[in-house]
Amino acid sequence: MSELTVPAQAGAPAAESGLMVQAEQVHKSFGHLEVLKGIDLEVRSGEVCCLLGPSGSGKSTFLRCINHLEKINAGSIRVDGELIGYREHGGKLHELRQKEVAAQRRSIGMVFQRFNLFPHMTALENVIEAPVRVKREAKVAARERAESLLARVGLGDKMGNYPGQLSGGQQQRVAIARALAMQPKLMLFDEPTSALDPELVGEVLDVMKDLARDGMTMIVVTHEIGFAREVGDRLVFMDGGVVVEQGNPREVIANPVHDRTKAFLAKVL
Amino acid sequence: MASEEVTTVRARPEPIKAVPVRHPGRWILVAVLAVLAAMFVHVLVTNKAFNWSFMVDKMFRPPIIEGLLRGTVLMTVLAMLIGVVLGVLVAIMRLSDNPILRGVGWLYTWFFRAVPRLVLLAVFGNIGILWSRIEFGVPFDTQLGQLFGIDNLQLRLFGFSSRDIITGFMAGLLGLALSEAAYMAEIVRAGIQSVDGGQTEAAQALGMSRGQLLRRVVLPQAMRVIIPPTGNETIAMLKDTSLLLYVPVTVELFFQLDAVGKRTFQIFPMYVAACLWYLFLTSILLVGQHYLERHFGKGYGPTAQARDRLRTMAAQQGGGGAQ
Ligand SMILES: Nc1ncnc2c1ncn2[C@@H]1O[C@H](COP(=O)(O)OP(=O)(O)OP(=O)(O)O)[C@@H](O)[C@H]1O
Ligand SMILES: [Mg+2]
């Protein structure tokens, strides 16, 4: 597969700190159920951070908090130095308006486990939609970029197909292209290969590897230990709504310190 | 290899020549139905009350055709157009994050679904009793004036005599359209809710506004669920235009047939003419609906289509208005 050129904006220098994501003491409850109990996490610009943990540990919830699909109850999340969902003014937090939240989401791409492509649009239309409607880009330019993005994820010959006419792996690659078309500075992946037949996992991981190689900042929730070891700069193990352990993927996988990490890895490996 | 040899050796068996199962019940049923049909035709032909020649003579008269075109067909089209647009708005209100909009939307559907269409039309027909003039300006101007010590303050920009704008046609249209909007709102709401939540999420993650995600992502997908019951609503609306008799709307098919019947003391033939006209009109719509359903059910298999039809029937019972 050819090199993926990351859109111009991607990998642009983050705030002076060089940190793309700063999460501090993030708490999130659904009713009485506290799902996130104080997550601290920093992701450097250009880093690939793999999130690992048992089912129900809050990985998806945390990811969704980063682009404000879920509202957090306490703590703070900054992306590229900018507070997500709120504005600080006069020592107080003010909720952002829907419009402002939408503007923040434009620079954060998200890829879902179940693809969530728009079924009434072709692959090409899926990719063009947001740049044209949301960013008000010229149709011709957006179309050209969409075509080259689709070609680079290996779907140059499937642009006119509807999602229903594509395999799972192809759909997920379209979904990645759709997110990239907005030229995000951060990409969130929520188990992008879990809904795929085993023989289709590779083609999606290959696209993600290319993306990582080109310097995209990525947070990837995955059970693909091989991917984490090969591509990840950092592995974060979550359980029960907290970060239990983190570090270099190779080291954590080879010598987990915490018992819960050991138990989990023993099951996955 | 061995198995092939066996098949070539064995001869092809004789075609089955079995005695088919007999259905004597069917023949009895056909006989009974034939007798009933004959009796029915006999009544149609011999009973003088039908007065066929009179009916055929009257049912194509210009006032009746005009009533059919304006009071029935045009009214159905306009009421459905307004009803659909307003219904989408009310549905969006009911699904909004804003509790005030949600409340208003709920109140709207509650009111217009709780009052029978016939009663609603009678009320709208007499709304002129409330106000002789309809004026636009500062609300509560007289009361505000009194507050500041000015007697009989009038801050009105323009106005009409209510008899000028609330004609029978307008009153009837308003009644039918507002009531239809309440039923359409429920249909559209169900349609929107039938779209997978992941679609909204994906659209939000791309930075789409609520309006954009509704217009571009959710509503196009909700159409498959919304279109079939809307076809049924249209048919129900066409029939319910006959209720305009109580507004009254004079340029309307049933009003005209009824009037001819009463004037000539030939009420029954004119009601038969009404049956025939409505049968004709709804049959046209039924054919259209058949193709619409086939188009929107494409690729979903017979079970999904049957499920859609069931939903449609449930919606029709809710929207039937007159019953
Ligand atoms: N919208 C919601 N309302 C109520 N509870 C929720 C909601 N979303 C998630 N939860 C709960 O929060 C907990 C964490 O869910 P989450 O999806 O973040 O887990 P996860 O780590 O992604 O698990 P998995 O590996 O199965 O995807 C679960 O117990 C889940 O039931
Ligand atoms: Mg999850």
Automatic annotation (TrEMBL), chain A:
Where does it live in the cell? Answer: Cell membrane
Keyword terms = ATP-binding, Cell membrane, Membrane, Nucleotide-binding, Transport
Q: Which GO terms describe its cellular component?
A: plasma membrane
User: Main localisation, per the record?
Assistant: membrane
Q: Which residues form the ABC transporter domain?
A: 21-265
Does the keyword field hold Cell membrane? yes
InterPro entries hit by this protein: AAA+_ATPase (IPR003593), ABC_ATPase_HisP-typ (IPR030679), ABC_transporter-like_ATP-bd (IPR003439), ABC_transporter-like_CS (IPR017871), MetN_ABC_transporter-like (IPR050086), P-loop_NTPase (IPR027417)
Q: Which reaction does it catalyse?
A: a polar amino acid(out) + ATP + H2O = a polar amino acid(in) + ADP + phosphate + H(+)
Q: What protein name applies here? A: ABC-type polar-amino-acid transporter
Example GO molecular function term?
A: ATP hydrolysis activity
Task: State which Enzyme Commission number(s) the record gives.
Answer: 7.4.2.1
Q: How does it sit in the membrane?
A: Peripheral membrane protein
Which SMART domains does this entry report, sorted A to Z? AAA (SM00382)
**What superkingdom does the record give?**
Bacteria
Broad enzyme group:
translocase
Automatic annotation (TrEMBL), chain B:
Q: Record keywords: Membrane included?
A: yes
Membrane topology classification: Multi-pass membrane protein
Q: Which InterPro entries match?
A: ArtM/GltK/GlnP/TcyL/YhdX-like, MetI-like, MetI-like_sf
A GO BP annotation:
transmembrane transport
Q: Which GO terms describe its cellular component?
A: plasma membrane
Which UniProt key words apply to this protein? Amino-acid transport, Membrane, Transmembrane, Transmembrane helix, Transport
* Ranges for domain ABC transmembrane type-1: 69-289
- Matches recorded under Pfam families: BPD_transp_1
Query: Is Isomerase found in the keyword set?
Result: no
Q: Which family does it belong to?
A: Belongs to the binding-protein-dependent transport system permease family.
Name of the protein in its database record: Amino acid ABC transporter permease
Species for this entry: Micromonospora musae
The organism that produces this protein has a lineage beginning with: Bacteria, Bacillati, Actinomycetota, Actinomycetes, Micromonosporales
